[in-house]
TrEMBL record:
<keyword id="KW-0546">Nucleotide metabolism</keyword>
<dbReference type="Pfam" id="PF00962">
    <property type="entry name" value="A_deaminase"/>
</dbReference>
<dbReference type="GO" id="GO:0046872">
    <property type="term" value="F:metal ion binding"/>
</dbReference>
<keyword id="KW-0862">Zinc</keyword>
<protein>
    <recommendedName>
        <fullName>Adenosine deaminase domain-containing protein</fullName>
    </recommendedName>
</protein>
<dbReference type="GO" id="GO:0046103">
    <property type="term" value="P:inosine biosynthetic process"/>
</dbReference>
<comment type="similarity">
    <text>Belongs to the metallo-dependent hydrolases superfamily. Adenosine and AMP deaminases family.</text>
</comment>
<dbReference type="InterPro" id="IPR006330">
    <property type="entry name" value="Ado/ade_deaminase"/>
</dbReference>
<dbReference type="InterPro" id="IPR001365">
    <property type="entry name" value="A_deaminase_dom"/>
</dbReference>
<dbReference type="GO" id="GO:0006154">
    <property type="term" value="P:adenosine catabolic process"/>
</dbReference>
<dbReference type="GO" id="GO:0009117">
    <property type="term" value="P:nucleotide metabolic process"/>
</dbReference>
<feature type="domain" description="Adenosine deaminase">
    <location>
        <begin position="16"/>
        <end position="361"/>
    </location>
</feature>
<dbReference type="InterPro" id="IPR032466">
    <property type="entry name" value="Metal_Hydrolase"/>
</dbReference>
<keyword id="KW-0378">Hydrolase</keyword>
<keyword id="KW-0479">Metal-binding</keyword>
<dbReference type="GO" id="GO:0004000">
    <property type="term" value="F:adenosine deaminase activity"/>
</dbReference>
């Protein structure tokens, strides 16, 4: 059994994958987090001993996860740290054979640190351009001068990560703590940076904070501008908001855990693709267990969905592991897992040229991985 498990894990790693729901800060490496936290401790900004054990722990409780969120917030007020984290996160996803990655992050204003939303995003883009271990394809929406993505299945790479290529796009997150004006600023920034890899808008943050009406003007503005939108939906059982989100009908939805029967019915009729985050949902209590996760219901009715990590560092997971969990929990075959990964191509916010290239990539990989 152990040999079968190991073989399946290796197969899930070799599988080309599309990641559509990954928060930059929550995907930071534990080793980097430990190093940076120690530096903050030495400076007296935090008490290092208070977070040391939590950082080194595998399988954190929800309160411990929130403790790390506070640490992420402190760390990302420094431009150089943002650049470093971005670089490492992209490299880590590429090592997992992720061929297309949408990273979401909240642009931050911090006057004390001399940080604006624009300078924060410049630090992120600097990190993308600093990646050397893999070739990052940051394509311009107004030009097709970039080389096409030619990512071979991992066995053809001979373990040489330098041959890997990965498409990376950015989603700007509106935080639920923000005002309407601040949310509109983020949408305007997304429009200004659309030729620098920014491709969409996300609404996220503490699900019990804020009102839908606060962010609606910004989301409607994004829709008018033709900017794709994804919304965290149903992380808590807020009936009024879930209904409003479904009525708004964004291009994608994240999580959708706490829906009632009528809301499930409406979601399925709208066929809005869902970003499924198994480990995250179980750890945060959005789903009672892996076995009872709503993935099975949506998958069985052929609802559009994609597997995602949410916060790979925070929840000690990877996209390869999420595919393995689906295989081991719900009994999906390799052919079914491959189809699940391939289907995610249709839900990316990138344009037809990118989708065409990704489809071709999967066609080339299919023969090797499913026969």
């Amino acid at each position: 059994m152990e040999k079968e498990e190991e073989e399946m894990r290796e197969w899930c790693l070799a599988l080309p994958k599309v990641e559509l729901h990954a928060h930059l800060n929550g995907s930071v490496r534990d080793s980097t987090l430990l190093e940076l936290a120690k530096q903050l401790g030495d400076k007296g900004v935090i008490v290092f001993e208070d977070v040391k054990d939590v950082i080194m722990k595998n399988g954190r409780s929800l309160p411990e996860c929130f403790q790390l969120f506070e640490l992420y917030h402190i760390l990302t007020t420094d431009h150089d740290t943002v650049t470093r984290i971005t670089k490492e996160v992209v490299e880590d996803f590429a090592m997992e054979n992720v061929v297309y990655l949408e990273i979401r992050t909240t642009p931050k204003n911090n006057e004390a640190k001399g940080m604006t939303k624009q300078s924060y995003m410049n630090a992120v883009i600097k990190g993308l351009k600093a990646v050397e271990a893999v070739e990052v394809v940051l394509f311009d929406s107004n030009s097709r001068t970039d080389k096409p993505l030619t990512c071979a299945p991992s066995s053809e790479l001979g373990g040489d990560v330098s041959k890997k290529k990965i498409y990376v796009k950015l989603l700007l997150s509106i935080d639920r703590r923000e005002t309407t004006l601040a949310a509109l600023d983020t949408v305007n920034l997304a429009m200004e940076m659309k030729d620098q890899g920014v491709i969409g808008i996300d609404l996220s943050g503490n699900p019990v904070v804020g009102e839908w009406e606060t962010y609606l003007p910004a989301l409607e503005r994004a829709k008018q501008l033709g900017i794709p939108i994804t919304v965290h939906c149903g992380e808590v059982a807020n009936r009024k908001e879930i209904q409003a989100v479904l009525d708004f009908c964004p291009q994608r939805l994240g999580h959708v855990c706490c829906l009632n029967d009528d809301e499930w019915k409406k979601l399925k009729s709208l066929m809005i693709p869902v970003e499924i985050c198994l480990t995250s949902n179980v750890m945060t209590g959005g789903a009672p267990s892996l076995e009872l996760h709503h993935f099975a219901d949506l998958y069985n009715v052929k609802h559009p969905l994609s597997l995602c990590t949410d916060d790979s560092g925070l929840f000690s997971t990877s996209l390869s592991n999420e595919y393995y969990l689906v295989a081991s929990t719900f009994g999906l075959s390799k052919a079914e897992l491959f189809q699940l990964a391939q289907d995610a191509v249709e839900f990316v916010f990138a344009g037809d040229e990118v989708k065409k290239t990704l489809r071709e990539l999967f066609r080339r990989a299919e023969k090797e991985l499913t026969t």
